[in-house]
Amino acid sequence: NAADVKEVVAQAAAIAQATFATQQSPIAAVIETEKQKLRILVMDSDQATAGAVEEILQHRAEVIWAQDEEHAKEILAHQNVSLVVADITMGGKSVSYILKTVKQFNPQTQTIVLTSFSDTSHLIELINQAQIIRYLPKPIRNNILARNLEFVIERFHALGNSPELQQRQSVEPIKDP
Q1: Where are the alpha helices (DSSP H) in the chain?
Q2: 65-110 pLDDT tens trace
Q3: Are the beta carbons of 84 and 112 closer than 8 angstroms?
Q4: If DSSP codes are grouped into helix, strand and coil, which group holds residue 19?
């Protein structure tokens, strides 16, 4: 729809203009918010993923492992998380609605999606409605996961120090229940 495209482009341009002057260097952002301990939720039925995240970050963050969607929802109901590392399916069911909901309520939360399938239409939906920042194929390689975790943590801190930049994290309304 041409009208929708124009509206989205106009919104993106307005956000870019409003935030251009407020961008900070990632290093300064990390220094300012170093006192804030990161809380990372790992949503994966395989505990090895949570173990890999813990090993990579070496106590720089609280890593919480949710082995099923009910546990993940319980954690999210009671705690704010800085970063979500999630397998797109848990127990054979998609958890994309959880990722979309997290982003609706907390735009600063960053998300890395892990998956062994390559449904591009599903990934595009997650990019638009959950603002996933990285997609990594399974099986995961620790060196690739480490680089992506560092980037996403830097981005989280930059957004926390600049509420204006959070506007860039706005997402489409959730289309499915």
Answers
A1: 2-20, 26-33, 47-57, 69-78, 96-105, 120-130, 142-161, 163-166
A2: 999 999 999 999 999 999 999 998 888 888 888 998 888 888 888 9
A3: yes
A4: helix
